[in-house]
Design a protein that fits this description.
heterodimer; A: 453 residues; mainly alpha; Fumarate Reductase Iron-sulfur Protein, Chain B, domain 2; 0% strand; elongated; B: alpha/beta; Rossmann fold; four-stranded parallel β-sheet
Chain lengths: 453, 259
């Protein structure tokens, strides 16, 4: 009976998970092509090892880094126990690895138990930091509502996960003494060997068996719940941090992405050879920069889905810390939320989201005819993007190499190049550069300063 | 000393070692002009054959690009590259970290590849090679704090060259809380220099100068004309302009060189 329920649950979860994760993939791929240099594979893998796997950048703040490391390492190791749970569940056996691995099994499960205890302490600490200590970056206004609940739900999930493990192992330890035939010897486990008898010693075998099963199912259900919950949560970083770090930009930090169309246009204007005369623009000016997520690169959207809203970027943002509206974290959250909104609307297939002129002959809603009358600017205000000093502190701060600066610059490009809008203060600077080749309108010659040298 | 333009140097048949890229601030801003003169004097003292582009130099396009105006950036960049390639420029030194970043990191893609140095890096090299000797003790035991500009520091990873220069002066470097990778912006980058700050509780330059004042240093050393403007304005807002001075690292060096 348990076996059937298990197989059904696993099957259904896998199916829904496949649906949800491919949805995320499609959402990321709504973005434009991203040119990454595939030749630098070594450096990319080095980054994955050091930054993603090795958590190098987390250690700029050692207290959360250490606690995060507990949860992270416990998560990695618990996968071994999860494999056993799946084998046990599929084949109706109990602790499949115990007799095979013998003493090594004791070591393995003891390691998982110690890590789980550390992760338990970390979970409590994180709940405390978020809800009682109120660490400033964890209680900023962009986290009000769902993001705050999301963060707490994950921590509660972790709490339950670990509770499940210890209930299961603790009851099992006691049962090994009562029914050695059904409960293979695991050896003396680091935590359960004393926690088990302390909590459950003296209970009836039936109660113990129930507890053991309860722990087992609790752990499994939370794991399955997690898999289905991740795609709607900021916690997706546990998977996406790895590809995100791999694909992160390797070109110099100070190099903004070039716009070859404009470069060639200006070259031909100046009478310089473009090398490829075909590339020169036609009569109609295309749109430049980013108005919506479609105009970002898929890497920008991957960044948004990889963000776990830790707020290290916002904490160091000079604009944010002096009370301006800009928050790099909010920029990333907004990109993700807008991508989600578009994805929902696209899936609805409702033609009210299609561009009006296309309504007559085209019957299906796609990203190419999508227009819901909204854009990224409905999420990220102009005031926010105007406040950025391009200081790169946010880029430096992110533990998973997210670049919040690039989308801000792309939105500025849209505003200036496609809308001819932007802060009025900049107009004299632009005019002066265009007319005099200098950022200020001056009456003296550029080289006049040398006369006093 | 006469600062020559590339055109003049070429006419005289001079072999120019390095092009001094002055930038808009260094050319037009009264405070930054002093730094341009200071650096030119140091180059002269070290016996470097250098030249400027003079009226042929244009804005690098950095503020335009970061404001979103790619068209204007390309217009400036392509003309500058054309001018420099015409003169066969190989080495460039500049007193502005924004010019430094743009020429070093953004011009190559547009056809302009040069060896670019920030003046603090260049001065370090001159001292290492013994072409400049810092002997004066003007700043001995003076508390100096150093402000990392974003474009030299975090963006281009140069934290040590300016600090080494300050150490040459036998001055005591008192670091602010946020330095190097974690350095705090002065508030001018990303074309903020040309616009009013967005609504907030405080100005970025005030936040930064408060941190500098906490060190009790009497000199705030900087490496960027825009940081110098922002930090000086911050000092005025705090009414500390008579007690604390904001100076370019090169100015400290020049004052420590025996005549």
């Amino acid at each position: 009976m348990q076996q059937i329920i298990f197989i059904l649950l696993l099957g259904i979860t896998s199916y829904i998970a496949y649906k949800l994760y491919s949805r995320i993939f499609h959402n990321i791929m709504m973005g434009k092509p991203y040119q990454y240099q595939n030749t630098d594979k070594n450096e990319r893998w080095r980054n994955v090892l050091l930054v993603a796997f090795g958590q190098k950048k987390m250690f700029k703040k050692w207290i959360p880094a250490v606690f995060h490391l507990f949860i992270y390492v416990a998560f990695l190791f618990t996968q071994i126990e999860l494999i056993e749970i799946i084998i046990d569940g599929l084949f109706g056996v109990h602790r499949f690895f115990a007799p095979i691995l013998g003493g090594f099994y004791t070591l393995l499960i003891s390691t998982i138990e110690i890590l789980s205890l550390l992760a338990f302490i970390a979970t409590i600490t994180f709940l405390y930091r978020r809800n009682l200590l109120k660490v400033p970056r964890l209680v900023k206004s962009e986290l009000n509502g769902w993001p705050k609940l999301d963060a707490n739900l994950i921590l509660i999930g972790e709490f339950l996960l670990i509770t499940g493990i210890f209930t299961m192992n603790g009851a099992d330890t006691v049962l090994q003494g009562i029914q050695p035939d059904h409960y293979p010897n695991t050896g003396s486990l680091a935590i359960s060997s004393w926690l088990g008898p302390a909590l459950f010693g003296g209970l009836e075998p039936e109660a113990l068996m129930l507890l053991e099963r309860f722990g087992w199912w609790l752990h499994l259900l939370v794991v399955l719940g997690f898999i289905l919950y991740l795609p709607i949560s900021k916690h997706l970083h546990i998977f996406l941090a790895f590809p995100n770090v791999y694909f992160s930009k390797l070109t110099p930090r100070g190099q903004m992405e070039n716009m070859p169309e404009i470069m060639n246009e200006v070259k031909s204007m100046l009478g310089f050879s473009t090398g490829d005369e075909e590339q020169v623009m036609g009569e109609e000016m295309p749109e430049f920069g980013s108005k919506d997520v479609f105009d970002l690169s898929w890497k920008n959207i991957l960044n948004a889905y990889s963000c776990t809203e830790c707020g290290r970027c916002t904490e160091v943002c000079p604009a944010n810390m002096t009370g301006k509206k800009l928050s790099p974290r909010k920029v990333m959250m907004d990109i993700r939320d807008r991508a989600e909104e578009i994805s929902r609307n696209l899936r609805s297939g409702d033609m009210k989201y299609a561009k009006t002129q296309d309504n007559t002959d085209i019957k299906t809603l796609t990203k190419d005819n999508y227009d819901d009358g909204k854009s990224l600017f409905d999420y990220i205000t102009r005031e926010e993007i105007h406040a950025c000093t391009t200081c790169n502190a946010c880029v430096e701060a992110c533990p998973v190499l997210i670049d919040p600066l690039e989308p801000i610059m792309k939105m500025r490009r849209y505003e200036i190049l496609s809308e001819s809008a932007g802060p009025a203060d900049w107009v004299p600077m632009f005019n002066s550069i265009e007319n005099n080749g200098a950022v200020w309108q001056m009456s003296v010659e550029r080289e006049a300063w040398r006369n006093e040298a | 000393m006469k600062v020559k333009t590339m055109a003049e140097a070429q006419a005289e048949g001079l072999d120019v070692e390095v092009l001094f890229w002055v930038g808009c601030a260094g050319s037009f801003d009264a405070r930054a002009q002093k730094v341009s003169r200071t650096f030119a004097t140091l180059l002269d003292k070290a016996g470097i054959t250098f030249a400027i582009l003079g009226n042929e130099e244009m804005c690098t396009g950095d503020p335009a690009r970061r404001a979103g105006n790619e068209f204007l950036f390309q217009l400036m960049a392509l003309q500058n590259i054309d001018t420099m390639n015409k003169y066969g420029v190989k080495k460039i030194v500049t007193t502005c970290p924004h010019c430094f970043n743009t020429i070093k990191n953004e011009y190559p893609e547009l056809g302009g590849s040069y060896e670019v140095m920030h003046h603090t890096q260049f001065l370090n090299k001159l001292i290492e090679e013994g072409r400049l000797k810092v002997e004066g003790e003007t700043f001995k035991n003076t508390n100096v704090t150093y402000h990392d500009s974003c474009y030299l520091g975090r963006i281009n990873g140069e934290y040590e060259a300016p600090r080494k220069l300050i150490q040459e002066l036998k001055a005591d470097i008192v670091e602010m809380k946020r330095v190097k990778k974690n350095g705090l912006c002065c508030g001018a980058g990303g074309a903020q220099m040309w616009k009013e700050e967005e609504a907030g509780e405080k100005r970025v330059n005030v936040e930064r100068i408060e941190e500098a004042l906490e060190t009790n240093a009497s000199i705030v050393a900087a490496n960027c004309p825009y940081c110098i403007t922002m930090l000086s304005d911050g000092l005025k807002a705090k009414d500390k302009q008579d007690v604390v001075k904001v100076m370019d690292v090169s100015e400290l060096i020049l004052q420590s060189i025996k005549e």
